[in-house]
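User: Can you predict the 3D structure for this chain?
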Amino acid sequence: MSLKAQTAEQIIPNISNALAQQHWEEASNLFRLAVDKDLFKAEKFFQEEISPDCPARTEMIHQLGFYCKGSRNYEKAYDYYKELVELRPREVIYLISLADLEVILGKENDALKTYDKILSIDSNNLAANIFIGNYYFFIADKEKRTLDSEFKKMQSPTRMQYANYRNELARLVTTEFEKAKTFLEKVVRQFPSVEAKNTLDKIHAVELESKK
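Assistant: Here is the predicted structure, written as structure tokens:
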């Protein structure tokens, strides 16, 4: 019978046979089929039969995480990718998936740390530069909006208040806006991103404003 036509119960004994013969790639491929057929049964087999030192374990965790992410079971996928990154801390493909899940789950600060780690391995990584550039731009833009709003409330600002406003604007330009600019410039050097270019134009406009 074709493997694709078999149930998870029929595939799982073949995984055990492949493992017994140390055919790790074959076992991983069979496990992927079992995951596609029945996640619950595949997970049960993994938890009960796959030891921490099994050479096929890492790829099997990847299959579980990938399937859960594709099925929008983000919490479970997150747990699997966390484990993958612990096992392979410099594997960029796992780190990117983990960071993506952190963003989906609203863990932006964790995502920032993960993307920072990616850049420590691959400084030109496109996904990491896009996220971090936009992250710092969002912080800077939010602070500027608050700064502008508070200044506009002053009907007759004193020279000291105006000076404070200008100093805070200059600080934003040289800190968060500058960080955002650095990362987004890396993006446009690699990829003609219209969104990144538009954001850089906004940063440039703030820089000009700060020099008036």
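Residues 124-212 form a domain with the Serine Threonine Protein Phosphatase 5, Tetratricopeptide repeat fold (CATH 1.25.40.10). The longest helix spans residues 126-152.
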